[in-house]
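Notebook entry, structure prediction.
Reason for the run: the old model in the group folder had no record of what sequence produced it. Starting over properly, with the input documented here first.
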Amino acid sequence: MKRPTQVDVARLAGVSRATVSYVLNAQTDQRIPISPETRQRVLDAIAQLGYEIDARAQSLRSGDTKTIGVLLPIYENPFFWQILRGISMEAEASGYSVLLAHSSLTPEEENQSVRELAEQRVDGLIMLIGFKLLPEQVLNQLHHSTRPVVEISGTASTFDYVHQGYGAGAYALMSYLFELGHERIGFVYGVTITSQGFDRLEAYRQSLEDAGLPYDESLVLQCGPLMEDGYQAAVQLLNRPDRPTALLAINDLLGMAVIRAATDLGLSVPGDVSVASFDDIPFSSFIVPRLTSVSGSPEQNGRDAVRLLLKRLNEPDRPQEVIAADWQLNIRESTGPAPKQNH
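New structure, fully documented this time:
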């Protein structure tokens, strides 16, 4: 059946199409007086015909889509989906929907995803970019667009952004491990490029220096971002004759892989080796042993990103705003006192 139009509604109600449009858009100011009886006739005709507003046509007329474009990495890490949950909940509460795009594991594919998302009909963009290597052409496209951009980022941005850094949390975690007597602490650095997670690596290095301990590059094993990568890196570190008494992992997924590797090698966690990581995803509280982790408040970060975007939509010329994300060290069963000696 043919979808009913405003013309059909007007014909059934015995009014002009303009009157139908005014009723639908609540434009009943004094210049266009519409009686309650006329308004009711229009509403009755709408109900009788089953007329529905064409949101796409309406957005073309107004220029507003009430849609926020979101770019997230496609990593298997649930941390990113917690961010998306925060974005979706805040957007919905503000009358917006979300158009999700995801970037891949290479800079080239991520750049393409940014370009494609920027060409969509959205009111603004929220981006969590893994590589921070956008070509100048893409950056110029974003900066010269009339649509605002907000980043959720561990490093500085030229846009409004939520600073999702783990530097202070990593320093606090290292201080806690020192209190437990750990001095040989390895790092499973599971990243695609070195700049990812650099805040954690720098805090690791700085905390060793401040504690008067040597920084041993061989204890930092850079590997890929997948759980299998973290597992193999942990096996390599734990098979050393002078194995570390504690291992940090770049995120909880790799932390779980480290625990699995230690168990497969016949080691006790935390009796022989302590394990700690970052993100505090829900799984970290349910594995055995429960994982010590630094929380990054992902859902709140998503909500804050939407709030920044809506502020920028309402005040395009306002100064740049940065929101510093909260962190919290959650101490659980996977960390304990350093063993008196490796065995």
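Summary: The longest strand covers residues 67-73.
The old model has been moved to the deprecated folder.
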